[in-house]
Amino acid sequence: MTIENNVLVKLTEVGLKQRNKWLVKGVSLIVERGKIVTLIGPNGSGKSTTAKIAIGLHKNIEGNVEKFTDKIGYVPQKISIDWTLPLKVSDFMVLTDELDEEKINEALKLTGADHLKNQNLGNLSGGEFQRVLLARAVSKKPDLLVLDEPVQGVDFTGEIALYKLIKEIADKLNCGILLISHDLHTVMTATDHVICLNGHVCCSGTPKDVAMNNEYKLLFGEQASQTLSIYEHKHDHVHSNDGDIKKN
Amino acid sequence: MFDDFFIRALIAGIGVAFVTGPLGCFVVWRRLSYFGDTLAHSALLGVTMALAFEINIAISIFIISSVIAIILVKLEKNTNLPGDALLGLLAHSALAVGLVVIGFLSFIRFDIMGLLFGDILAVNVDDLIIIWGGGAIILIVLKIIWKPLFASTVNYELAEAEGLNPDRAKAIFTILMAAIIAISIKIVGLLLITGMLIIPTAMARNISDTPKKMVIFSICGGLLSVIMGLFSSLQFNTPSGPSIIAAALLLFVISLFKIKQTIQLKN
Which of A56, A84, A120 sits opposite B205 (nearest CB)? Predict the structure, then answer.
């Protein structure tokens, strides 16, 4: 497979119908190398379905999916692991790919989960598990990362740090990211392209375009469009751990 | 040394235990114990087919069990019945049809108890070849499909999304299940094969914290059960299959003390 023009995955007018009901319809999107594409939308708007279509988890779909890579890292929204299976974090890290010790440590450290390495997967809290999931997805240096609400259950400070990390990963690995998020704040700051779903593509474009869009305002309320303006002011500095404020 | 029936039984049982250990782990992890039962029940039909058409029993069982597995997959797709109802339907239908066919084969002298519960006297050198040869093939194939099978056992979508082929691994695993039932029927008997698959594994779960350890302990548990069971079978003149399973149960009960300790340590 060749990678043309940095396009990693291209969906054209895809749709999925189950039990006579369209879960999503007419969605087109492109994920490119080094870019973050975010899907937002209310519950049941087909965000996860769209992500699953993009990585080929749904058969019998309408429309066309072109994948230009097989190196995919996936963080599913819901994951249930059967506890009849004794599984340590370090075993989980090498689930779909062989990795050496160093890479495992590196990835776990990146997401702040290195102290969990020898823990049993069943003993982790929701947030800890989420960090491990994210570490596993990035550890194999994928071309395409598909993250379905990757920071659910993570504490507030951790959440911001992880989103920042996701952006760093996109730059560092030069991979494309398809992100699903509920958190409009982060979406508006860390994303290159936003697609607002509600069964169909409600609106899409740069974070700025979407925030100004009337349909978006209808869907999320007037307040949502203000998240952008609030955030743009904060964008000129960062807070480091020791309390210093650094200019960007 | 293969002249002695007991030595033959022991070698056969050890061969079976090496294979049921790792397969049993997947049976427990994937919640397939009732599926194992269904395949085992259908084995009776396989035996009657073998007698009627004078073909090798293991091969006949393997074919019938595979056919039942395929029918199950088709029914799951095309009916609205839940999986356990379909399994029950197939298990008992296959058992009933098998017994009816035996009724028609009244001209053949037939040891039904040996079939149901295992018969160490009946193990011959051909059986040993089938058990060790077939067992080796099963283990090699399992090794090859281990990664996709294990990954999809943990999470199907992760495995599929990241380029493994879980559906193919599952289909191959089903065939391996049919194969292990075919080769182990003489030792444990068809009513107790699932016990051989899950009881040593359940014991192993109590004392292991990684999948690898669980497989190893499961094999060890199976080996111990076979050795203890066969010796007591010889000693007390009990049927071999139930004696092996009873030994496995004993090991499981002992392992419960270990898990109690771990839980106490945690608190």
Answer: A84
Domains and CATH numbers, chain A: 7-71+142-235 (3.40.50.300)
Of the pLDDT bands very low, low, confident and very high (cuts 50, 70, 90), residue A235 is very low
Is residue B253 exposed (0-12), middle (13-18) or buried (19+ Cβ within 10 Å)? exposed
CATH of the domain at B209: 1.10.3470.10
| Min Cα separation A85/chain B (Å) | 6
What residues of A are in the B interface, CB distance below 8 Å? 52, 55-57, 70-74, 76, 79-82, 84-88, 91-92, 95-97, 120, 146
Count other C-beta atoms under 10 Å from residue A106's C-beta.
Answer: 15
CA pair distance A135, B196, nearest whole angstrom: 38
Judged by average pLDDT, the poorest of A43-47, A216-220, B231-235 is: A216-220
- CB nearest to A91's CB, from B29, B153, B211: B211
Cα–Cα distance measured from residue B4 to residue B264, given in angstroms and rounded to the nearest whole number = 48
Q: Are strands A21-32 and A7-18 parallel, antiparallel or unpaired?
A: antiparallel
pTM of the model: 0.83
What pLDDT is stored for residue A101 in this prediction?
Answer: 87
Phi, psi for residue A102 in degrees, rounded to 5:
-65, -45
Render pLDDT for A115-165 as a digit per residue (tens, 0 to 9).
998 888 888 888 888 889 989 988 888 889 999 888 887 787 778 778 888
Q: Quick one: which of A134, A144, A27 has its CA closest to A77?
A: A134
Q: Which residues of chain B have pLDDT under 70?
A: 1-3, 260-267
Nearest 10 degrees: CA dihedral of B151, A94, A69, A179? 90
Three state DSSP letters for chain B? CCCCHHHHHHHHHHHHHHHHHHHHHHHHHCCCHHHHHHHHHHHHHHHHHHHHHCCCHHHHHHHHHHHHHHHHHHHHHHCCCCHHHHHHHHHHHHHHHHHHHHHHCCCCCCCHHHHHHCCHHHCCHHHHHHHHHHHHHHHHHHHHHHHHHHHHHHCHHHHHHCCCCHHHHHHHHHHHHHHHHHHHHHHHCCCCHHHHHHHHHHHHHHHCCCHHHHHHHHHHHHHHHHHHHHHHHHHHCCCHHHHHHHHHHHHHHHHHHHHHHHHHHHC
Mean pLDDT of A199-220: 78
CB B189 within 8 A of CB B137: no
The interface predicted TM-score (ipTM) is: 0.77
Report whether A196 contacts A213 (CB < 8 A).
yes
Domain range for residue B57? 5-266
φ, ψ of residue A5 in degrees (nearest 5) = 50, 30
How many CB atoms are located within 10 Å of the residue A222 CB? 8
> Which amino acid is it at A117?
K
